[in-house]
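Archive maintenance. Older records in this collection stored only the sequence; we are now back-filling the structure field for every entry so that each record is complete. The fields below show one back-filled record exactly as it appears after the update. Entries are processed alphabetically, and Lipoprotein LipO is next in the queue.

ARCHIVE ENTRY
Title: Lipoprotein LipO
Organism field: Lacrimispora amygdalina
Length field: 520
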Amino acid sequence: MKKTWKRALSVSLAGAVAISVSACGGFAASSQKEAANTTADGKPTITFMAPSFYGTDLKNDKSDEVIKRFEDYTGTHVNWQWESNDTYKEKLGLTLMDKDNMPMVVTASGDLTANVVDAARKGAFWDLTPYLQDKENYKNLSQANPKVLKALTVDGKIIGIYRSRVIGRYGFSYRTDWAEAVGITEEPKTVEDVYNMLYKFTYNDPDGNGINDTYGLEMTKYTGPLDIIQTWFGCGNEWVEKDGKLVPVHQTEEYKEALKWMKKIYDEGLIRKDWATVDSGTFQDGCKKGEAGAFLDVMDGAKRIWSYYNMNSVKSVTDPSKNASMTLVGPINDRTLANSGFNGYYLITRAGAKTEEEVKNCLHFLDKMCDDEMLVLADYGLEGVTYDLNEAGKVVIRHEMEAQYTPSAGLNQSICYIPNREPKSPALEKDEPMIAQDQAYERNEKVAVYNPALGYLANSEVNAEVGTDIEQIIDDARTQYICGQIDDEGLEAAAKQWLDRGGDRLIEEINQLYQNDTSK
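Back-filled structure field:
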């Protein structure tokens, strides 16, 4: 599935200068050479390229305190190269082509891509396999999930350390008071239940204003919600195992059944007509504004909608004395989409980290950043500034400033979240939306449908050659079919085009890798 939290300063003047230079984004070969040296206070310096979501990464009030804390704790200076997330993919491609001038640690987004695999085969990255088995020196990283690492393995070599994500992150949710208003008393369990809910949310005036101005499900041009729906029908996650072979899901009858259902809810107006133009960045707005009643994506997205209701005092339509809330269901038909178990990963480059000692410096930093102390610093910030400890010793977030203005903004972009995705001590005092999110994660993880071909796709030469292009053929055809621009014949034509442009070779190679895999 193509479907994805930062650091730096020194007590020494030299360290501060290095950081200010890196914040501007440039990386000269001379600066890398200088960064490789040990500074006057004895700490090694590593160079680190990461995406910037805010443009304020470690540059806010009290960020200097955050920088000092993580550098003292890890014993490492970090020379940052922040790159805008909007253009990060392009910047990564350019960085990989500049073989003699790379940061030591490079952040990659999503899953393995063809250009990363190609660079790995040309020897651009260190093989991390032996280091990740070193439990003594890397107590956190050595606990990485072998199944997840398989998706970051090229020709038998682990080339990246993943940024852990909840396996069962995707699922269905809906506005609780709207369900009450239209007479729905039980959470939907089947596709038919979901259809009935979406129909009533569209045509039974769930907000009680007497106007036909609502629709059932918020949708977006981002393909995630469609991929989730497909799992409800049993067609798998991109690929599925059938009779001992791996088959792309669009070749299954279940896939066609799922598309017919999606087309039905489109034709009946249960989703907005312009869904295919809605940007994922504004995807939650329909539910926040009271236009849509159901949300289908990551459970933390549903949690954020619920938190929005609380922060903005959006009242329940059935009980105005209370705020509106979301019910986080998760699976439908006892299925939901699994993700890869990670969202992005870190590569240690041979051009940047030229010696084994420098590789160990990078790994030491990444390992220490997974300790509770650093998880708290990166995700919660500074005590007395962005959070407080209550009488039970738990973290209570202040919510007084937006994430981009917090002292630790950007710091979490250097955390693998291995083995824990949140600190155990001090633990976070969780509100109702957070508790509901965690419960949904737990339900999802038991039934999440994995992509059985993920590790093989990473090593497929055919996928590197044509994968992105032919994937787009199927994605486009799916959208066109739902919107009535093509019929069954057009769908079959797209499937044939997929085969003719390399899909037939891809199936053959993936299954060859599958049959040769003795570890499966």
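Update note: The first helix runs from residue 13 to 23. The chain has 18 helices and 17 strands.
Entry marked complete.
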